[in-house]
Amino acid sequence: MKKHQEVLNRQHYILDQFKVMPAAYYSYLDEIMQPKYFAESEVLFRQGEIIDKAYFLSSGFMLANHYDENGDKHVINIFAQDEIISGKSFTEHTPSDYELVACKGAYVLYLTYDEVNTIYEKFPPTQEQAMIILADKEKKALDRSRMLNQVAEKKVADFYDRYPELKKQPGKIIIDADIASYLMISESSLRAHRANYK
User: Of 70, 103, 107, 121, which shows the fewest CB atoms inside 10 Å?
Assistant: First the structure.
């Protein structure tokens, strides 16, 4: 049994929530998926590079950062435990609009672009599963847009309701500047509303 079999099993369970797949598919995933732990934060792909790996985030966080024409960084997405990360750059094999970063303490399983295409050939129903996963990502993006339309106090409360572990150790996993960027508020506003958050 692989050391990370428990993580693989949880990934199987999550994938089945989108579309139930045959046991042979999961056996194949068990053979080819590779684990990686990040003792420190690490840039996996820079903006403009082709992201050629898809990730299952078993624990911890990952960030998607976009750099504008002035070189200023904007955190456009925060990925958390049990999320499947495979955006447009991966699916279309085109340069990424953002930088992908694994935060300190993140643990992932990953597949390469070629491995995913082989899976599609060997197990055709996975293509439908992938479409359902993309639809779920679209819903999450819409939920984030709604959240960002709220006042700062409500945004901060909703954020820490979703990620309580980040409230326990402010700045240790994701720095305040990145959270403030994601919420589109100032760092001072983030800290003030976090102090009032119960």
Answer: 70
Q: What is the pLDDT of residues 172-197, one digit of tens each?
A: 999 999 999 999 999 999 999 999 87
Q: How many other C-beta atoms are found inside a 10 Å radius of the C-beta of residue 87?
A: 17
Residue 102 lies in a domain: yes
CA distances for 189 relative to 152, 166, 167, angstroms: 7, 16, 15
pLDDT digits (tens, 9 = 90+) for 7-37: 999 999 999 999 999 999 999 999 999 999 9
Sign of CA dihedral 53, 57, 61, 64: positive
Instruction: Please say whether the beta carbons of 78 and 63 come within 8 A.
Output: yes
CB neighbour list of residue 176: distance below 8 Å, 6 or more residues apart: 170, 187, 190, 191
Do β-strands 42-45 and 99-102 pair in parallel, antiparallel, or remain unpaired?
Answer: antiparallel
Alpha helix ranges (H) inside 108-175? 113-122, 125-148, 152-162, 164-168
* CATH number of the domain that residue 138 is part of: 2.60.120.10
Q: What domain range includes position 127?
A: 5-149
Q: What tokens were used for 93?
A: 């094999």
Residue 3 has pLDDT above 80, yes or no: no
